[in-house]
Amino acid sequence: MQVHSASGVNLNDEDDKVVWKLENSGKFTTRSMYRCITFSGVVDVRMMEIWKSKVPLKVQIFLWMAWHDRIQTAQQLRKRNWNGSKVSKYCGKEETVDHLLFQCPIAMVTWCWVRDNLGWSKSPTSIKTFQENCLGTAGGSRNNMLWWIIASVGWALRKTRNDLVFSNVIVKSPKQVVYKSLGFLKQWTKLSKDWSRMEGVLLKLKEGLSSW
Predict the structure, then answer these.
(1) Who's near 100: CB < 8 A, 6+ residues apart?
(2) How far, rounded to the nearest angstrom, does the alpha carbon of residue 79 sit from its chain's CA centroid?
(3) The dihedral formed by the CA atoms of 146, 147, 153 and 154, expressed in degrees to the nearest 10
(4) Do the bridges between strand 17-20 and strand 2-4 make them parallel or antiparallel, or are there none, so unpaired?
(5) Under DSSP, is residue 18 helix (H, G, I), strand (E, B) or coil?
(6) Which pick of 28, 40, 46, 110 has the fewest CB atoms within 10 Å?
(7) Mean pLDDT along residues 26-45
(8) How much is the pLDDT for 41?
(9) Is the pTM of this model over 0.85?
(10) Is 149:201 a contact under the CB 8 Å cutoff?
(11) Beta bridge partners of residue 17, listed in sequence order
(12) Cβ contacts of residue 47 below 8 Å, gap of 6+?
């Protein structure tokens, strides 16, 4: 006979085996406990796509933080009583997650490059519009490619921004961000099982640079 406890554990009288019913394996994990406490066992499929994307773990964490507005932008730091400037060093406007990744002029030019060469009807202007206008139904196969793209562009923008803020490295042209993005895309293509499709996207983006 099995007895179900309120904590999510099954107690089996026959073999005295403890089974954790929040995981298919029957074994306890902190992930399942956190998910149960925070979301009552409901899984955010969109966020699961981030963890399944074929990019390095640190970049997956970066995307997760961006989606939850946890990146240390000037706006976030000011909420923690930081007394530094709240504006972007690039353009002098308030630095938010959406501004850093989509709305700053250097980000806008980079996304225009992606849009024009991949045939998108419009460029994303925020995390919300990226999710609504670019990503398909959660779990769709095309989304793997889109997470791969936003990961490379977002990571390139973040690193370029940090180089300016912490090392005073000035960006002379948006092309520098574009080339960084291409470098990450090429490197991470090897991590994907669908590498042939990724190679095709990478080729289109490379060809687009010839018109700049």
Answers:
(1) 71, 73, 88, 107, 157, 158, 161
(2) 23
(3) 140
(4) unpaired
(5) strand
(6) 40
(7) 68
(8) 52
(9) no
(10) yes
(11) 12
(12) 64, 67
Element (H, E) at 11: strand 9-12
**pLDDT tens per residue, range 97-140:** 999 999 999 999 999 999 999 999 999 999 999 999 998 777 67
54 against 32, higher pLDDT: 54
Spatial CB neighbours of 78, under 8 Å, sequence gap ≥ 6: 84, 86
Question: Locate tokens 């966020």: which residue?
Answer: 47
111's tokens: 């996304």
Joined together, the tokens standing for residue 32 give 């399942």
Distance of alpha carbon 76 from alpha carbon 120, whole angstroms:
31
Is residue 14's pLDDT more than 60? no
> Does position 5 have pLDDT exceeding 50, yes or no?
no
Mean pLDDT, rounded, of the chain: 84
Would the CA dihedral through 5, 10, 16, 17 be positive or negative? negative
For the beta sheet containing 17-20, the strands, ordered from the edge strand earlier in sequence to the opposite edge, are 2-4, 9-12, 17-20
